[in-house]
Amino acid sequence: MTKKVQFKLSSNNVAGATSGILVGEFNGWDINKGIAMQRLEDGSMVAEVDLADGKAYEYRYLLNDGRWVNDDNAKKFVSAYGMTIENCIVEVAKEKKDKAVKASAKKSATPKKSSDKNTAVAAKTLVIEAKQDLTKILGVNAKAAQLFQSEGVKTYKDLGGCTMKQILLILSSADLDKKVKHATSWAKQAKLAAANKWEELAAYQSELKSTK
After folding, report:
1. What's the DSSP call for residue 79?
2. How far is Cα 181 from Cα 183, in angstroms, rounded to an integer?
3. Which residue has the higher pLDDT, 166 or 111?
4. I need a surface site. Which of 13, 78, 142, 148 has the fewest CB within 10 A?
5. Where exactly are the structural domains of the chain?
């Protein structure tokens, strides 16, 4: 069975954004299938989604100013694998059923077979790629991150594969090529992030910050 679940993002998190989408496991972390949020008079945003009951789903919000934000109302969070961010978790309560149905449901909740595990691993990989936050790269602000997203540069791997000429070309389309810092280091930073070398990335960023 499915239940209609309401998601609400507070006005504090919305801040200066004018629109946003809800993205999570229920839509494969595909921002192209993101669920549009409706902005209320108090500045908050809401969306309603039909979700299967008895399950838990990871989710976040992507605002049109390039920020990924979490839900203040979420009761649980989980660290995203290989990332320094957390995803919100919503648990959809299961409808009460008779004992026979409950017994059947319990049986279906037994450990998954290896083929199911392979599917779960593939899905997890998609999640990791979809939710990479380019603002973790020193010098990439929210506006630049949003610009990269619109040009198809959505992951650390994508950014790491860009030449300096390509980066400047994308930035120049919004007159950002002369307004950002450390752009010449972005590809190297992104490659470290893509390889999950977070300690090396932090050391490199500290070095960049200390250089005048």
Report:
1. E
2. 6
3. 166
4. 78
5. 2-112, 134-210
Q: What is the pLDDT of residues 107-130, one digit of tens each?
A: 655 555 555 555 555 544 444 445
This prediction has a pTM of 0.46
**Domain 2-112, CATH class in plain words:** mainly beta
How far is residue 136's CA from residue 93's CA, in Å, rounded to a whole number? Answer: 35
Using CA atoms, how far apart are residues 121 and 90, in angstroms rounded to an integer? 21
Which tokens in the block code for residue 13? 């998190």
3-state DSSP assignment of residue 137: coil
Q: What is the DSSP-derived secondary structure letter of residue 34?
A: P
With a cut of 50, say whether residue 212 has pLDDT above it.
yes
**pLDDT tens readout for residues 83-94:** 678 899 999 988
Which residue bears the tokens 């919004």? 174
Q: How many CB atoms lie within 10 A of CB 88?
A: 21
